[in-house]
From TrEMBL:
SMART domains: REC (SM00448), Trans_reg_C (SM00862)
An annotated GO BP: regulation of DNA-templated transcription
Cited InterPro entries: CheY-like_superfamily, OmpR/PhoB-type_DNA-bd, Sig_transdc_resp-reg_receiver, WalR-like, WH-like_DNA-bd_sf
Record's keyword terms, sorted: DNA-binding, Phosphoprotein, Transcription, Transcription regulation, Two-component regulatory system
Record has DNA-binding as a keyword: yes
Name of the protein: Unannotated protein
Statement: the UniProt record of this protein carries the keyword Transcription: yes
Taxonomic lineage from the root: unclassified sequences, metagenomes, ecological metagenomes
GO cellular component labels: cytosol; protein-DNA complex
PANTHER family, alphabetized: REGULATOR OF RPOS
PROSITE patterns: OMPR_PHOB, RESPONSE_REGULATORY
OmpR/PhoB-type domain sequence ranges: 128-226
Length: 227
């Protein structure tokens, strides 16, 4: 399978080089540029699978690049990077056509998780509808979950949470990422709701004495993997 093509537009050379190196280690084919004008030229000449754009860039900022890309009919996923934390800035980015928004400084694992999530969402319907970790299976289209032959009845929130974790088997997903994906950006991350839902998932997936598949990494987040 060909490597997924990712465009990085970031005027801070240290951030640009760090992100490029990490993505290349993950087997992405990366094109890196340092301003908005170069980003627009790259988007015009290459069909990328994902664009990662800094908001504050010379010649054309990330919002302008995003708006122009959408105006041109470029429908690839776009992730904006910014040092601005105000809700209004986030809204402006999403209104410009961005699919996600990551505030600097960020943890590189979260950047990778968001890139993977955006790339999955851009796949044709049904391309990854069946997720499997050991004997635990989840069908994103029918919203059915099984542990071996046993059907597991989940609420919408329980299903969405399990699906998020199963999309990245063995990868620890941070509490912050989960709260934003499942409940929204403004959800209080100190809330115990996530712990409660993790407990529900464990109870239902281990109901017949099966081995644990939903694990806690204390102080970091959660992951789904085979015991």
């Amino acid at each position: 399978m060909d490597s997924r093509k990712v465009l990085i537009a970031e005027d801070d050379s240290s951030v640009r080089k760090a992100v490029q190196r990490v993505l290349e280690l993950e087997n992405y084919a990366v094109t890196a540029v340092n301003d908005g004008k170069a980003a627009l030229e790259a988007l015009a000449n290459t069909r990328f699978d994902l664009a990662v754009l800094d908001v504050m860039m010379p010649f054309a900022d990330g919002l302008t690049v995003c708006k122009e890309a959408r105006h041109r009919g470029i429908d690839i996923p776009i992730l904006l990077l910014t040092a601005r934390v105000e809700v209004g800035d986030r809204v402006a980015g999403l209104d410009a056509g961005a699919d996600d928004y990551l505030v600097k400084p960020f943890v590189i694992d979260e950047l990778l998780a968001r890139c993977r999530a955006l790339l999955r969402r851009s796949q044709p319907t049904g391309a990854s509808s069946q997720l499997r970790v050991g004997d635990l299976t989840l069908n994103s289209l029918t919203r059915e979950v099984h542990r071996g032959e046993r059907a597991i009845d989940l609420t919408k929130t329980e299903f969405d949470l399990l699906e998020l974790l199963m999309q990245q088997p063995g990868i620890v997903v941070s509490r912050e990422t989960i709260y934003e994906a499942i409940w929204g950006y403004n959800f209080e991350t100190h809330s115990k709701s996530l712990d409660v839902y993790i407990g529900y998932l464990r109870r239902k997936t281990e109901e017949n004495g099966e081995s644990r598949v939903v694990f806690t990494v204390r102080g970091v987040g959660y992951t789904v993997k085979q015991s």
